[in-house]
Amino acid sequence: MESGDELGARVREHLRPGEEFRAAIRVSKADGSTPTGMSRAEMSGFRFRRPANAGRRAVPGPRRTLAEGLGEHVRLVTDPRTLVLTDQRLMLLSRRALLRRASGSLRLRWECARPEFASATEREGRLRLAFTDGSTILLLAPAAELDTFLTSQ
Asked: Residue 47 pLDDT more than 80?
């Protein structure tokens, strides 16, 4: 795990001239599984297949909602992404290669303009992002970093 200073330095590589870095937090998917056990469907090897509608779309252009676009790039806890908040935009960054060291550079996966980002709140220990198009997404985030991210909005 890298320190906040190292992460901040890697994030600053993606800032535009005059853009102010506010906060960064590691995020991953908040799956709906429960600790009560697995169903037969969850144990099936077919559960790892992509849903039919998750592939490429026939119609070019942006996704229907901002939350869907963001959710498309968020991965499981084993491969967390970095959510970055600046004064101009919200960005999602990832490591360039899975097997490289943590000191490698980051890759821009998704972004939205700051006016399209409505709010970030904590909901049941998870990070809830709301957008001006009415969409929302719940993400897992380290509790130690959550307060810092929420207060920097």
From this structure: no
Question: Residue 48 falls within a domain, yes or no?
Answer: no
Query: How many domains would you assign to the chain?
Result: 1
- Long-range contacts of 132-138, Cβ-Cβ distance < 8 Å, separation of 24 or more: 133/65, 133/66, 134/65, 135/65, 135/66, 135/67, 135/68, 136/67, 137/67, 137/70, 137/71, 137/74, 138/30
In a domain, 50, yes or no: no
Amino acid present at 6? E
How confident is the model over 106-137, as pLDDT tens digits? 899 999 999 999 999 998 889 999 999 999 99
The reply to whether 46 falls in a domain is no
- 3-state DSSP call for residue 25? strand
CA distance 91 to 136: 16
pLDDT at 75 over 60: yes
95: containing domain: 4-32+64-151
Query: Which pTM value belongs to this model?
Result: 0.74
CATH number of the domain within which 28 lies: 2.30.29
